[in-house]
Amino acid sequence: MKTSSIAILLFILMFSSCSEKTKAPESSCYPNNKRPSEAITYEEMSAMMDTYEKGAKKELNKYMKKISGGKDSISTNYNWYKLDELKQYIAYIERISKEKDIEVTGFRIYPTSYPKNYSIEDLQGRQTLIFTPTTKIGLKEDVAFEPLYSEKGKPVGISKFLKQVRAKKAYKDTLLLSTLKEQTGLKSSSANRIKPNPPY
Questions:
Q1: Helices 42-54 and 56-67: angle between axes, nearest 10 degrees
Q2: How far apart are CA 165 and CA 99, in angstroms?
Q3: How many whole angstroms separate alpha carbon 16 and alpha carbon 163?
Q4: How far is it, in rounded angstroms, from Cα 197 to Cα 128?
Q5: What are the Cα distances from residue 37, in Å, to 44, 106, 108, 109?
Q6: Residue 103, SS3?
Q7: Which helix (H) or strand (E) segment is 3 a member of?
Q8: Residue 162 contacts by C-beta under 8 Å, 6 or more apart in sequence?
Q9: Burial (CB count <10 Å: 0-12, 13-18, 19+), residue 121
Q10: Rounded Cα–Cα distance for residues 112 and 125 (Å)
Q11: Contacts of 176 (CB under 8 A, 6+ apart)
């Protein structure tokens, strides 16, 4: 009798554990992982890609052919960023901005090109992208800023540093930049190092 009672109890436990639905863990660390309103349709995507191919891409291809001396006539088809690297970059920007009590509102993505004399020959003249963090300054919420050199609660726009580098002179009147010795090594919080195709 005792053995059959134990067997019945075990059977009930097994049956109840099998019928209980286990809740799957969240697959995302984000509070909202639903399809965003910014997501587009394939019709929109096709129209935009075709417009680019028939317009700007033709001009970029001509430019590529010109600067490569006819060796290359295909401009950048796409840029690729590893998901882990993109997440790390966002985490880095959020961390250093939080340390300065500055809210990150988003990122500007600047279309740019590698210089003709860039150290990696395959990338010379190719179109690329630069990611730059943004914050709210005044009424604008998309101001590109530099968290590395901003003071607590006082974001500094990237234009200040671009002007400095372009003019090849330091602003010695600001204590903020007096400690920066070499303009050629002036670090930024912006990111590139994206793999363009071609050549990759």
A1: 40
A2: 26
A3: 70
A4: 10
A5: 14, 16, 18, 19
A6: coil
A7: helix 2-19
A8: none
A9: exposed
A10: 9
A11: 149, 151, 156
The rounded distance, in Å, linking the Cα atoms of 81 and 131 is 11
For residue 71, the surrounding DSSP H or E stretch is: none
Residue ranges of E strands in the chain? 78-80, 106-113, 127-137, 140-144, 195-197
Specify whether the backbone of 115 is left (phi greater than 0), alpha (psi in -120 to 50) or beta. Answer: beta
Burial class (CB in 10 A: 0-12, 13-18, 19+), 150: buried
Residue pLDDT, tens place only, 45-65: 999 999 999 999 999 999 999
pLDDT at 6: 41
Structure-block tokens of residue 119: 């150290």
Contact 141, 134 (CB under 8 A): yes
8 Å CB contact between 156 and 95: no
Distance CA(8)–CA(54), nearest Å, equals 74
Place 174 in a pLDDT band, splitting at 50, 70 and 90. very low
Q: Which residues of 168-193 are buried (b: 16+ CB within 10 A; e: fewer)?
A: eebeeeeeebeebeeeeebebbbbee
